[in-house]
Inverse folding.
């Protein structure tokens, strides 16, 4: 895949499913990742709760795209 090629819908759904699976099986309470990209460093924070009270409304809910792990 070229560096400027966007993820397909299927790839995006697969990424969300893998992150959900990782959070359910490997993660304790939070993760903080740093990844180099062709543009700059990318910082990813994954946690069990929003950083501040009332912040949940600022998140986009993609739960409907995740296949149940049951």
């Amino acid at each position: 895949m070229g560096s400027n090629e966007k993820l397909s819908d299927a790839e995006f759904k697969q990424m969300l499913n893998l992150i959900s699976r990782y959070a359910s099986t490997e993660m304790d309470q939070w993760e903080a990742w740093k990844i180099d990209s062709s543009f700059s460093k990318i910082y990813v924070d994954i946690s069990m709760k929003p950083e501040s009270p009332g912040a949940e409304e600022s998140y986009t809910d993609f739960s409907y795209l995740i296949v149940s792990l049951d």
User: Anything to note?
Assistant: The beta strands are 30-36, 41-47. The chain has a mean pLDDT of 89. The first strand starts at residue 30 and ends at 36. The first helix runs from residue 9 to 25.
